[in-house]
Amino acid sequence: MKKIGVLTSGGDAPGMNAAIRAVVRTGKYNNMEVLGIRRGYNGLLHSDVVEMGPRSVSDILHRGGTILQTARCLEFKEEANVIKAVENARNLGLEGLVVIGGDGSFRGARDLSLHGLPTVGIPATIDNDISCTDYCIGFDTALNTVKDAIDKIRDTSQSHDRCSVIEVMGRDAGYIAAYVALACGAEAAIVPEAPFDLERDIIGPIAEGKKRGKESNLIVVAEGVGGSAEIAKQIEARTGIETRATILGHVQRGGNPTVQDRVTASRMGAYAVELLCRGIGNRIVAKQRDAFVDVDILEGLNMQKKMDSELLDLGKILSI
Ligand code: ADP
Ligand code: F6P
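YS: structure for the whole thing
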């Protein structure tokens, strides 16, 4: 291939810029032209593109967000629009495309591949919920942002002998909640992947802890479970411990990417271009057991990811 496109789609994630940079520069290294497509699939539908040379990606490696901007483009779920996008891509001379995003974005990538535009997906979402890969770009940065916030909440919670309920992002997934609960010594992580009982999982352990002299508690709730304000109310009413709820929100999606996210994004960006160079599309770049591999998009989308229940169990043991 001599000319490829790159776009970012769905929720932004720290490290997307590092991936764009890797695509552009590996493309240049392989004598390809690279077009940046703006605002996700919208840019492909409206031919909103920008030429990207190696200098166009200077000074972005360390920045959160995405210089190409991103969007949720609902029209793209309609086949007629996918066909229009493939036509536009042909008119722009594009022979292949790199899509940086989550599994919704990969459904769009699958449709483009099926309609004749070879497309490679790079997993990037702070939720870390793409089944075919152990790791998604942005997860580590989000974890560190949340860890810093919870450490601060712990200072004030401890000073007041309070319980703090902290709601973290994760639309359908509890990876952020499960990891930071362990990293921050929370009493419980409430995640969509595991059934949750207020009495058994929160009230009981807090009451037991109180008997052992524990006056301050942290409970991490994944957004996919939600209801953190109500959970806080119930804890206060049933245990007598003053309780506050904090919803961390979009602060979790911003910030400078960590080393892990910069390195993973650089490796995955280069890997995606190498696939397209060899004329291979319809793949997702993935990290499996510390190796970079590629999987068929459809197979990847159909895989199931399982939350490691040991993470949650260990959190309970260590917060005794
Ligand atoms: P993410 O990629 O982070 O999972 P979304 O689920 O919002 O984010 O998807 C991002 C975009 O991908 C959507 O706005 C839409 O343009 C495209 N997309 C999502 N689902 C599909 C689908 N089933 N078919 C085609 N395109 C889709
Ligand atoms: O998928 C990433 C994510 O941050 C989810 O954790 C969250 O539910 C969603 O995006 C929020 O999306 P928006 O930015 O549209 O509010």
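YS: worth flagging: The radius of gyration is 22 Å.
IM: good catch. Also The CA atoms of residues 198 and 233 lie 12 Å apart.
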